[in-house]
Every structure is written in structure tokens, then in C-alpha cells.
Amino acid sequence: MRSLVLLGLVGLAAQLVDGSLGMAYGVTSTTLLLAIGANPASASATVHLAEIGTTLASGAAHWRFGNVDWKVVLKIGIPGAIGAFAGATVLSRLSTEVAAPVMSIILLSLGLYLLIRFTVRGLDRKNLGKPLRKRFLTPLGLVGGFLDATGGGGWGPVGTPALLASGRIEPRKVIGSIDTSEFLVALAASAGFIVGIGSAGIDFAWVGVLLAGGLIAAPIAAWLVRHIPPRVLGSAVGGVIVLTNSRTLLRSDWIDAPAGVALAVYIAIAVVWIAAVWYSVRRHLAERDVGGPVLDKANNPEAEAPGAEAPARTEAPAAETA
């Protein structure tokens, strides 16, 4: 019973982070399942079955708050589903020990880029609204879906930084679109696991409690991402990516860092990350107070541009005199 309660709390916390930052549900949940003795295939299958419900609820909540770009969802979600099905069916035969460090280096580089870019510059609006091309989204979806199924998580860590780095879509819509498209990935991965290992290796009680925790957290996370300024959100996401992938590299066979060294690195990263988020918050508040660029305007599409009220006030007298 205690394990089920713990799993429910993990599901809630994981979805709260995933729905707010666009990543970490699968990684968090799968890590716990492996820690209590589940084999990789059944752990990933359990998490993806739970994600069918959590991603559906999260997608609906993000849609309700206007955080979804449906063109991006379809262009990245369908290739992601194909990649996830392929990854799920070969998980029992595939070793990711070599691929994981390589991908972590790529993701770590993206994380550093995002952390520096959003902390120092904020949201670059010159590319906002430009369409994301299929030749970019299709391979991204295939790779992200495959890694998500084989590693028990990876859709968010692959898709979120790549879309944020493009600078063509608002951070809140990046997260909302990634979370919504993950429903297709979870559905396809689950089907692949059913084909590959059957349903006997899946504990449906675990699936249920993970799902329950995620369903509670989904609308809260969607509301949070609607109101977090893009600059702060970008810094937070960058820090998550750097910390997560640094851990993967330090524990890999390539480095195999001693526990003391790894702990020192984690503390240093955490200090820099907290400082970056703090700086982003201060910059956001300062720019808002002095009437400069309001960085969370992208999170509020109903907000009017500066000076928009002036023409409205000048039109009324003209209409009355006519």
C-alpha cells in the first residue's frame, strides 16, 4: 500500500513538472519503477500506459489555456508515434548504454544554450510566428519518440529544447504542444509494448496510481505555464536539461565519476541554475515596472499592445460629430 501511495505522489509531482516545463514525467516515473525492481521494458510500458491518460488530460488543459499549436502537434506527433512504436518493439534487444551519453552531450549543449539565452536575452521575438518546417519536425519526432520508448522518457527533453531553440514558437506553446503530442507517442509506445512483451509484465495497479496522480496535477501545471513569464520559463527549462543530462554523463561508463565529484558538480549546477532563475525573475520585474518589454505578454494573447487604446479613444469623438 505504501508503494502505491508513493507512486501516486510521484505521478502527481512528475506531471506537475512535466506540464510546467514540458519534460520529466517519464524520466521521473521510470527511475522510481526501476529502483523498486521493475525491468526496463515493463517499467517503460507502465509509464507509457499511464501517460495515455495524463497526456490526454494535460493536452486538454493546455488547449483550454491556449497553449497549443495544433500544426506543430500533428507535424511532430505523428512521426513521434512511429518512432515510439519502433522503439517499444525493440527495447528488449536494444542497448542504449552507448547512445545515452551521446544524446546527453547534445541535450546538455542545448540546455546550456537555452539557460544562457533566456537568462541573458529573454525571449527573442523576431522569429515568433514563423512556421516550423516539416523537415525539422519530422526527424525530431522520430528520434524523440524512439528515445522516449527505449529509455522510458525522452520526448520532452528532446522536443522541448529543440523547439525552444528555434525561437519560432512561444515557450508556453512549446510546452503545451509537446505535452499534447505526447499523447500520440504514449499511445503508440503502449501498443508497441503490448506487441513486444504482452500485458502479463505490466502491473496495472501501478498504472492506475501513476495516472491518478498525473490527472490531479495536469490542470494545475497548464495554469502555471500560462502565467510563468517566458524568460523565467526558459531559464528553468535550461537548468532542468543541464542537470538531468550532466547526471547521465557523470554516471555513464565514459566518465563514471566518483560520488563526491558528482555531488560537487550537482551542487555547482544547482547554484548556477538558481542564480539564473533569480536573475530572470528580477529582469522580468524590472522591465515590467519601467514599462519596457513585458516578457510575459506572450503568455497573455489578450493583452493589447502599447498605444492600442489611443486610436480607440480618438475614433469615438469622430463618430459622434459625423
TrEMBL record:
InterPro entries: TM_pro_TauE-like (IPR002781), TSUP/Inactive_protease-like (IPR051598). The chain crosses the membrane at residues 72-92, 98-116, 181-198, 204-225, 232-250, 262-281. Residues 296-322 are annotated as: Disordered. Coiled coil: none annotated. This is Probable membrane transporter protein. Belongs to the 4-toluene sulfonate uptake permease (TSUP) (TC 2.A.102) family. Keywords: Cell membrane, Membrane, Transmembrane, Transmembrane helix. It comes from the Bacteria. Its main location: membrane. It comes from Glycomyces tritici. Residues 298-322 have a biased composition (Low complexity). It is a multi-pass membrane protein. The keyword Transferase does not apply. It is found in: Cell membrane; Membrane. Pfam families: TauE.
